[in-house]
Design a protein that fits this description.
By secondary structure, the chain is an all-alpha fold. It has a domain of 192 residues. Helix content is 83%, strand content 0%.
Length: 546
């Protein structure tokens, strides 16, 4: 059984995306369990503000050097090596592993030493006692990027060989590690128990992929050569990509810094709503981006431009088909989602209303956010890392300007503040400045999506949007029918269910969600959307005998 799991390979992009999405769904469900445990145990207050602020810098290293750097550029270079000489490909992998690990340890050690100065920038609104605890947690969690750095290289190997099943288990184990920390380590070590859980999760994320990498043919060798041509090419490609990835994470750092100066709990409210909105982005956008990346890279390297264009168009349409209804569904059910997932223990009604409002605003940019990973990897597949970087930096600048501007506008009673409070149903809450942060991030994401698509069309003239436009019209029409059914079901269910109880609220959300999904699928079927057939045929093909 274990051998079958290790040898499992995906035969189509769509099935690989379904596999990754299934894993992402389970992982994100665990993430929601994690957030519910955090909300119930700590509430949206000082302790979680400290934890989220401490998490930001290690996550910054993970985001820019690992997910944004090595994970994004390793696969195309490895594909070139493997196509020419298998033995050299594995030697290149070991060399990259050794060199990158050494550099990562040095970097994390330096940043751990500099943590007191860094935290002053990340959380300028913290008291001295808050800063001291934040520094201690930050230093502990610098171990997690080291484990993630090892894991990312093995992830690239598994992606090349289409072994997505084992890779898809890694984030599940990561969240289980954090949940273990909340349940068993926090009672003993306090907030430090959360940091231990993060480290444990990162370690499990790496270890689960080792056996499958060995089955793929990898054998470790102690080889350390900083002048190897492949290594230099990886680092050369990483530089612009790392700068680009830094843009998004610098956005989060700036937002954390601004939130630390607002009402206590603002950092937690923003992070909880951000985690909720990332559910569909990770489930759909990231899954399809990861699944399509190997095929796009192989087609470009081999000169199969027709296959490249077909893979791009098909993947784009499938993301569009899924993310459009999901983003609107989350908007319509935002209050129910927040109350069901976070409304427990120390998490009060004020925090619930603010988090629901932030989630509703985030829904404006979920569609754009889901496309950004795929569009960026499309550029990476033909080793263009500069364009996504420039676009990412422009989006970062826009986000920072909007964040300060919108928070400033919401600081005082004026027409904009009153309109925002009325639309988001936040009347009676004295300080609603935190809702300006997700609005800024959503507008910046839309801007980034539009620019990436524009420059991709300029780079690849043969790229046609005709099929995408036809799909878009059908999906939008079906989504409008879905919205009507969801809204009607919410209203009807409220008449015979007690939505003040957990079960009543759950029943209302489930009925409205099922009604919406049924109407959407029926409408797209009647409209003849090809994405339904694509998904069905991909699943069936996976189980055909070779």
């Amino acid at each position: 059984m274990l051998k079958r799991i290790l040898n499992s390979q995906s035969k189509t992009i769509t099935f690989a995306a379904i596999l990754l999405a299934g894993s992402a769904f389970f992982s994100r469900i665990l993430g929601l369990v994690r957030d519910r445990l955090l909300a119930g145990h700590f509430g949206a207050g000082e302790e979680l503000d400290i934890y989220f602020a401490a998490f930001r810098i290690p996550d910054f290293i993970y985001g820019i050097f690992i997910m944004g750097g090595i994970a994004a550029v390793f696969l195309p270079v490895f594909a070139e090596y493997f196509r020419q000489d298998e033995k050299e490909a594995w030697q290149f992998t070991s060399n990259l592993l050794n060199c990158f690990l050494l550099l990562l340890i040095l970097l994390c050690g330096l940043l751990a030493w500099l943590s007191p100065w860094i935290i002053n920038l990340v959380a300028p609104g913290f008291s001295e006692a808050q800063r001291e605890l934040t520094v201690a947690l930050t230093r502990l969690m610098f171990l997690s990027p080291v484990f993630f750095g090892l894991s990312s290289i093995f992830s690239g190997v598994l992606h090349y060989f289409n072994r997505f099943l084992v890779y898809s288990l890694a984030p599940v184990l990561y969240n289980l590690g954090i949940i273990f920390g909340i349940l068993f380590l926090v009672p003993r070590f306090g907030l430090r128990g959360l940091a231990y859980g993060v480290i444990l999760g990162a370690l499990l994320h790496w270890l689960i992929q080792l056996p499958a990498a060995r089955v793929s043919g990898y054998k470790y060798s102690f080889f350390l050569n900083f002048r190897q041509s492949g290594l230099l090419k990886v680092f050369r490609l990483m530089i612009p990509r790392t700068i680009g990835a830094a843009a998004y994470h610098l956005n989060l750092i700036v937002i954390t810094a601004i939130a630390s100066t607002l009402t206590t709990g603002s950092i937690a409210v923003f992070n909880f709503s951000n985690n909720l909105q990332y559910f569909p982005v990770g489930l759909i956008g990231v899954s399809f981006a990861l699944a399509a990346f190997p095929a796009l890279s192989r087609n470009w390297v081999t000169g199969a431009k027709g296959g490249f264009l077909e893979s791009f168009s098909s993947t784009f349409c499938q993301i569009l088909f899924l993310i459009t209804p999901v983003s609107l569904l989350m908007f319509l059910l935002r209050s129910q989602i927040v109350r069901l997932i976070l409304g427990t223990g120390e998490f009060g009604w004020l925090e619930t209303r603010l988090t629901a409002a932030c989630l509703g605003i985030f829904c404006l940019g979920i569609g754009a956010g889901a496309f950004i990973p795929f569009l960026s990897r499309t550029f990476y597949s033909f080793q263009n890392t500069k364009t996504p970087v420039i676009v990412g930096l422009l989006a970062m600048a826009l986000n920072i300007i909007l964040s300060f501007s919108l928070v400033g506008l919401l600081a005082n009673v004026n027409g904009f503040q009153q309109a925002a409070a009325s639309i988001l149903r936040l009347e009676g809450i004295e300080n609603i400045q935190v809702v300006g942060l997700p609005l800024a991030l959503s507008l910046a994401a839309i801007f980034q999506f539009v620019l990436l698509l524009f420059f991709l069309k300029r780079t690849i003239r043969e790229l046609s949007f005709q099929a995408i436009w036809q799909s878009f019209k059908k999906v939008v029409l079906a989504t409008l029918f879905m919205a009507l059914s969801v809204y009607s079901t919410l209203y009807l269910a409220a008449n015979f269910l007690n939505t003040q109880t957990y079960l009543g609220l759950l029943g209302q959300a489930v009925l409205a969600g099922l009604a919406g999904v049924f109407v959407f699928l029926l409408a797209t079927y009647l409209l003849g959307s090809p994405e339904l057939r694509t998904i069905k045929s991909s699943v069936l093909k996976q189980f055909e005998k070779s």
